[in-house]
Specification:
Elements: H1 2-18, E1 22-25, E2 27-43, E3 53-65, H2 93-98, E4 104-105, E5 109-122, E6 125-130, H3 133-142, E7 149-153, E8 160-165
Antiparallel strand pairs: 1-7, 2-3, 2-4, 2-5, 5-6, 7-8
Length: 168
Amino acid sequence: MQKLIFLLPVVVVLTALSGCTTLTTNQYEATALTSYTWQVKYANDLANETLPRFETFAKTELLNRNGNKPLQAVTGPDDRGLWWPSLPPRPTVDEVEERKHGLEARKPELLKSVEYKLTYGVGEQQRTLSTNYQVYRQVVKAYPSHIPLQLTLGISDNSVENAEPIGN
């Protein structure tokens, strides 16, 4: 039984590694969807509530492609090379109170978020998968020269975990 317990972590790691695919492509595009969202927290007791309710108000988004400045960009590039949309209108006191339904409401909070994706092609097949900031930056640097990239896909090939330039 003890031998099985020691082997379990090895089996888990091998399973995870075997679920990753590596491929090479010279057809790719990276996007970063930047957004601002106004959100308000509601609860019976804001200081001690374990399951507060969050309400979303206005939201604005801007799609960054390959690090290029989008036409609608209002600010940027920031320290990560991202461009940002205009701020959405802040919820009014009336709008916040309208959704209280007897609860306390915290002041509106402006949330900033980014969603990274990579679209790549191999032969006739094209896929778009979620990715991370590091992969986005590798693609942004490689894109102008169309340098081929070696992509490492995540478990079950549902994300892009790494991108390395080839022949650089």
